[in-house]
Amino acid sequence: MSYNIPQKPLIDEQIIKKSRFITHIARSSDKDEAKAFIQNIKAQYPDARHHCWAYIAGHPTASINIGFSDDGEPSGTAGKPILNVLQHRGVGEIVLVVVRYFGGIKLGAGGLVRAYSSSASLAMDKLETATLVPCKSFNITFDYQFEPNIQHLILNCGATIESSNYTERIMLKISIPTMQIETFNSQLINITAGKVFILS
To answer: In which domain, by residue range, is 155 found?
Structure first.
């Protein structure tokens, strides 16, 4: 199924009782990308007291690709509240880091939860998203006589051509929305009388 992802990185900031909370959001298609972004933010703010974060590196509801950290704040007051915000927004492939510069006034556990939750929420309110349609790539090889019908089928199924090779026969590498794969393959077999089908 399709889902929303960050369209471009975002930075937001709020001040709560003299502490600065700077929020960074970016797209992360996997855990390594999320962790690299977190390390980059830490390098940008080496003098900050805390760099608290959470990510969902995949589908919004996938529990296997999530992570979070309080980074020195009392347990449960930063990373989990940030993750809760992300999970309720239904956005996938996302990493969010809240950098805190301590302002000298302690917020208490409840105050920290509210501060990190609101920092994440305010940033998410401003985030521009795009819809990601999961696709899979396949190779198909066919005779020239089938090209018009196959090109028409590619267009109708929302597929795209990633590469092409025209020699004695035509070879196309195509990307097909996963929800259209069965339909595409059955129609491909029909219009070519079973001579062409998708090969991974």
So the answer is: 133-191
102-129 pLDDT, tens digit per residue, is: 999 999 999 999 999 999 999 999 999 9
Residue 77's SS3 state is coil
Residue 16, in any domain of the structure? yes
**Which residues partner with 142 through β-bridges?**
170
Same domain for 45 and 140?
A: no
Rounded CA-CA distance 192/96 in Å is 49
Nearest alpha-carbon partner for 66 in 44, 45, 100, 91: 91
Backbone φ, ψ for residue 161 (5° rounding):
-90, 120
Is the Cβ–Cβ distance between 121 and 85 less than 8 Å? yes
d(CA 86, CA 174): 33
200 occurs within a structural domain: no
